[in-house]
Design goal:
The structure holds 2 protein chains of 2 kinds. Chain A is 58% helix and 18% strand. Chain A starts with 16 loop residues before the first helix and ends with a strand. Chain A has a 4-stranded antiparallel beta sheet, with helices on one face. Chain A is an alpha+beta fold. Chain A folds into 2 domains: 81 residues; 77 residues, General secretion pathway protein M, EpsM (Gyrase A, domain 2), CATH 3.30.1360.100. In chain B, 23% of the residues are buried. In chain B, 52% of the residues lie in helices and 20% in strands. Chain B is an alpha+beta fold. Classes of the chains: A alpha+beta, B alpha+beta.
Chain lengths: 176, 231
């Protein structure tokens, strides 16, 4: 025998069909919401757990690296020392020096004719001053023409030029 | 109680009553979501951030280990070279032994030599000035000066004066040596280290070519036990 639903309630006490439908939809949404919420909470807890585990593993690895670096501490100290000393050496190399002038003089003496003698020389941080004496004017001309034509010297200044029968040709000049 | 139910039934219509439970459930879920988001999300974000930081530090540390292992062997030599070239204490003794030693090697006579006190300039550079007068042949004197220029500890020639008298050449020169205190701080373990730059390598190569002093450490001498005190 078929089951027949008989509503004996007065019609004003029963909810409207539309409201029943809305309530059913809201109920469905709530059920879906609860399911999503359970999944969300589960996934989040799993994520927090996995991330914590990963963090712990990485920290252990990091500590291992730190220990390796501690074992290499002496090397690090040496590196810092070398870098510090090199920086200081660069400062020394950057200091004004008469080193270039000394080299300049050596090169100059190399092609100086034998007849010319150097009597005095001043090596300064900025210039080289040389005093020479010779009896041979031709040698002096040759020497100066060579000095003037040399690209190494930025400046050649003849400071004095004297002649006396006893000493010969005395010159003083400045090179840069 | 029954009176209350009757009253509530009277107050809340059938429509509201049927909607009440699902709506309350929905609102509850909304609050649960909000609360959970507020609680869990920051934890995930913090943890992710921490992992990112650790990973960053690990990359740095790994690189640091690699660099230090790579340069460990050669640094032993470089440290000696650089520390002799730019020492931490007054290198006067070394330099004076070189001034005398090179003079003998190059057959140059030292007329007189003087060493000044330590001078600290504006840049905190500690200098020691030496004034030396030598005589000999021009060739020997310049070989001597070149030996000093290319010697370690580093020197800087500030001036020189050459004079001649009766065929003898005299050169008076002023030079300086430098020394600095050693660095006292080592960076934190997580600080990165830098490889030597090309510029630094060039300076090191220059320093390694400088002639080192014969001794860098003075050995203590005596008194020793005399086996035979009568001889």
């Amino acid at each position: 025998m078929d089951k027949v639903n008989i509503n004996l309630l007065p019609s004003e006490l029963a909810p409207k069909t539309k409201t029943i439908k809305i309530a059913s939809t809201v109920k469905k949404i709530a059920v879906i919401g609860i399911s999503v919420y359970i999944i969300f909470v589960g996934a989040s807890t799993a994520a927090v757990f996995l991330l914590s585990k990963q963090f712990d593993e990485l920290t252990v690895k990091e500590n291992g690296f730190k220990q390796s670096i501690r074992a290499l501490e002496e090397t690090e100290q040496r590196l810092i020392l070398v870098q510090d000393r090199v920086a200081k050496a660069k400062l020394v190399l950057g200091e004004p020096s008469a080193k270039e002038e000394i080299t300049m003089f050596e090169e100059l003496v190399f092609f100086m004719p034998e007849e010319i003698s150097v009597t005095n020389a001043d090596f300064n941080r900025d210039f080289l001053k040389i005093e020479t004496v010779t009896q041979n004017s031709q040698a002096l001309v040759e020497f100066f023409s060579q000095v003037v034509s040399d690209d190494k010297y930025r400046e050649v200044i003849l400071l004095t030029f004297n002649y006396s029968e006893r000493e010969g040709y005395k010159t003083s000049f400045r090179l840069k | 109680m029954e009176a209350f139910n009757i009253n509530s039934k009277k107050i809340l219509g059938p429509d509201i009553r049927i909607l009440f439970v699902p709506v309350v459930l929905l609102v509850g879920i909304f609050f649960l979501f909000t609360f959970s988001f507020k609680f869990i999300l920051p934890r995930i974000t913090t943890q992710t951030q921490k992992i990112k930081e650790v990973r960053g530090r690990m990359v740095l540390l790994e690189e640091k280990i690699e660099i230090l292992r790579e340069i460990r062997e050669r640094l032993l030599y470089d440290t000696d070279v650089s520390l002799v070239a730019v020492p931490d204490t007054n290198p006067g003794l070394w330099k004076f032994s070189q001034i005398k030693g090179y003079a003998e090697e190059n057959q140059v006579n030292i007329e007189n030599s003087k060493v000044g006190g330590e001078i600290i300039d504006k840049r905190q550079i500690t200098k020691v000035r030496y004034t030396v007068k030598v005589n000999g042949s021009l060739e020997d004197i310049f070989a001597y000066l070149n030996d000093l220029i290319n010697s370690s500890p580093m020197v800087n020639f500030s001036s020189a004066k050459l004079t001649t008298s009766r065929g003898e050449v005299y050169v008076t020169f002023d030079m300086e040596t430098y020394h600095w205190e050693l660095p006292t701080k080592i960076p934190a373990i997580t600080e990165p280290v830098k490889r030597l730059s090309n510029d630094e390598e060039n300076v090191l190569s220059y320093l390694s070519k400088l002639k080192k002093p014969e001794f860098t450490v003075l050995e203590p001498s005596g008194p020793y036990d005399r086996k035979d005190p009568f001889n």
